[in-house]
Design a protein that fits this description.
One of its GO terms (cellular component) is ribonucleoprotein complex. The chain is mostly helical. It is built from 3 helices and no strands. It has one domain (10-62). Helices cover 83% and strands 0% of the residues. The chain is elongated and about 45 Å long.
Length: 63
């Protein structure tokens, strides 16, 4: 997800999206540990998306 897409989401949508992305990230890591996945760069992309979502949520909580 792009940062502009993340900013446009509401706080409730951010929380839902964060849980979905974390679940997908965990599944990718597990699949890669068992046997190498086709595109290992997906793991990096998902990790960074999790970080972007979590950062935006914490930023909104501080305001």
């Amino acid at each position: 997800m792009k940062q502009s897409e993340i900013i446009s989401l509401s706080t409730a949508e951010l929380q839902v999206k964060l849980s979905e992305v974390r679940k997908t990230y965990a599944e990718l890591r597990t699949a890669h540990a068992i046997s190498p996945i086709q595109n290992p760069l997906q793991i990096r992309t998902m990790r960074r998306t999790v970080a972007r979502l979590a950062t935006e949520l914490s930023k909104r909580e501080l305001q």
